[in-house]
Amino acid sequence: MARVSTYLNFPRNTEEAFSFYKTVFGTEYSCHIARFKDIPPQPGQPPLPEEDQNLIMHVELPTLGEHVLMGTDAPESMGFKVNAGNNVYLNLEPDTREDADRLFNALSEGGKIEMPLQDMFWGAYYGSLTDRFGIQWMVNVQNK
Question: The whole model's pTM is what?
Fold first, then answer.
């Protein structure tokens, strides 16, 4: 089923933040916590520093109603720098690739594509962008 969630970037303290959110909302993670060490090696990609191996790549926590809070660590070794303003994304999870393409193309008009829609190693069709108003979006369709 399609859904919208909020995606938060943290500067190395996602686990601490989500442990706190778990106590606030009284819920459990809706999937296993993926860590950066779980990323398969990519051609031409430098090795991940030892201190970044156990950082969180992805976590999901139901909050209220159907809303899901998602998060990741954003290590500087991977080119990230977390600042107020780039630490929140709206994550769209449409039902089909066609809906993903339509939403992605419409939102990116006049904006900046960060990562074009493409098949990803975690089994999804994914892309990210900043719209012309400076709002950050991710579009993620799970391959079925």
Answer: 0.73
Per-residue pLDDT of the chain (144 residues; tens, 9 = 90+): 788 899 989 889 899 999 989 998 889 999 999 999 998 888 888 888 999 999 999 999 998 788 899 999 998 888 888 887 778 888 888 889 999 999 999 989 999 999 999 999 889 999 999 988 677 889 999 886
Rounded Cα distance between 59 and 34, Å, is 7
Question: Measured between alpha carbons, how far is 142 from 125 in angstroms, rounded to an integer?
Answer: 6
Find the angle CA(71)-CA(74)-CA(125) to the nearest 5 degrees: 60
Cβ–Cβ contacts within 10 Å for residue 128, how many?
A: 20
